[in-house]
Amino acid sequence: MQKIFTVILFLISAVFSIKAVDSKAVDSLDIYYDGLYAVNWTVNVYPVADVFSFPQDHIDNILEALNIPQKEILADGEWILWYYLDTSFQEARSIKSDIEKVDLPKGYKWGFGMLEDENQKLTFIVALCESESTFSDTIYQAFLEENVFAKPSVRFNFRQGESEESLEEYKKYSKGNNHLVFEINDWLFSYSQIKDNDGSITIDYVPRSILEKLYKSPRFDVPELIAE
Description:
The chain is of the alpha+beta class. It is about 20% helix and about 30% strand. The chain has five helices and twelve strands. Strands 1, 6, 7, 8, 9, 10, 11 and 12 form an eight-stranded antiparallel β-sheet that branches. About 30% of the residues are buried.
């Protein structure tokens, strides 16, 4: 399923709040692909809810809220993760506001994010996450990586400095759970954006405006601090 949605993303050429981002603002983030950025991220990893195991007395309300007739939507099969194609930040804020009005049973939460394809078209992501089964970590060092479209991608490692503890906990968690989504400082990223190389994480299709929120100065000059 992940491979299918990766192909879809090529073809269609982040508690989260859709923040008031001016997508026309002048870029202020300096992009370096050979340096290590100082960041302060809370990373939460959640499994996406399965429509068949989700409490059935709530499912009709959930699907009704997600179904927006005027939008072109891709739904990820049995997983409650929907993509609203060609959706601006302003439209996403309105959709999010409506969806959040739906009451959820204990142990579940909404996640919201944005992705941007190689043609700079935005897609709004909505996921229903299992919040009682969560992996969390704090990330202080991260890279920017150039992707095949010459755009920056997020890259970080759950191994921070010399400690292996979080990395080992994440590996155990990811082996025991499927269809994982990431939240970084409340911005959601779908598994169709994520490459996991043994705990080294790359996230693609991230809008520049979100990168501006995640990456802050100062920047480190010693990338060897993170062992890949």
